[in-house]
Amino acid sequence: MQALEQKILTEGIVLSDNVLKVDAFLNHQIDPVLMQQIGKEFAARFKDQGITKIITIEASGIAPAVMAGLELGVPVIFARKYQSLTLKDDLYRSKVYSFTKQTESTIAISNKHIHSSDHVLIIDDFLANGQAALGLADLIHQANANIVGIGIVIEKSFQTGRDLLIEKGYRVESLARIQSLNDGKVTFIQA
Ligand code: 5GP
């Protein structure tokens, strides 16, 4: 997706050979126009798949997921990373190792919002080693719902996540695919 790649090139900051900071438009400040385009692109790629729900993870997956939900006309659930006071019982839970925080945390969704009849699209901001996506997939499996695919805003293709998810049989659609962050420079895999 060209507008996204352009934004990454102009406003992304390469923190190291494997971490990209996009606080200017996705992870802290949010660019609503770009998010709308991202939502349309996910919707175009997954239309006609009978999607009934989108699942993402707080916080940075929420903006692109909501925009995709708006386009597809389906509700969006975000997995919580901690057990809040209002979210106590009847939870599906999974453990996820965080690439950026380098700690394991529990993610959870209420079983009230997902059912075995659901066809679910997973959306997240980044794909690195695939642990967040696998954790979300685990929650969906616990509900015996169907996973239609995984939509990623920024995939770092030099890390293991994509291969792992494809190996498990998931369809992965990434809007920007980064080949390398070496030498402080972003290079993309051309579609
Ligand atoms: P994974 O679970 O695929 O290893 O990592 C994906 C998760 O880690 C995403 O939900 C995202 O929050 C975070 N993440 C991974 N790599 C990056 C990165 O280069 N930059 C930022 N901002 N977040 C990342």
TrEMBL record:
Family: Belongs to the purine/pyrimidine phosphoribosyltransferase family. Xpt subfamily.
Domain of life (superkingdom): Bacteria
Catalytic activity line of the entry: XMP + diphosphate = xanthine + 5-phospho-alpha-D-ribose 1-diphosphate
Organismal lineage: Bacteria, Pseudomonadati, Pseudomonadota, Gammaproteobacteria, Moraxellales
Name the UniProt record assigns to this protein: Xanthine phosphoribosyltransferase
Keywords: Cytoplasm, Glycosyltransferase, Purine salvage, Transferase
Pathway entry: Purine metabolism; XMP biosynthesis via salvage pathway; XMP from xanthine: step 1/1
GO molecular function per UniProt: xanthine phosphoribosyltransferase activity
Function text: Converts the preformed base xanthine, a product of nucleic acid breakdown, to xanthosine 5'-monophosphate (XMP), so it can be reused for RNA or DNA synthesis.
